[in-house]
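Human: If only I could read backbone structure tokens as easily as an amino acid sequence. Underneath my words sits a plain record pairing an amino acid chain with its backbone structure tokens. Take your time, and here it is.
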Amino acid sequence: MPSDAERQQPPRGATAADDGQAAVASVPPSGFTLTGLVQHMAEVERNWFRRVFAGEQAPPIYDPQADPSAPDGGFELAEGATLHDALATWQAEIARARELCADRALTDAGRFMEQDVNLRWIYVHMIEEYARHNGHADLVRERIDGTTGV
């Protein structure tokens, strides 16, 4: 899968943080946190691979009342959220996405907003998602404790 290298980035920025650090909204007035970012990426994986590509009726992970056809959520910390749990959920969604795509062609399609989108398009979109949010994770982590680098 083309986005596997990008998929390894958020944990690198997040795994050295403890639950307290990962729950800090380090760029006021934004409530953006590392844990919320990992939760969001789990929602993104679920949406694009399970709902859009595979056509599953998979409910939102962190807000069961959220509209699955609305923009991906997860940024707000779930009650009792820990970074460890968010990372485990995110990894489980990645594993499920790999299963769903393993024997599929890049030209196979799912439905998004009343149009077909093929697996190639979804992979490119996911690379964009991860590139964007990996940059966010780098900045948030630096604000928390000064950690920088790859």
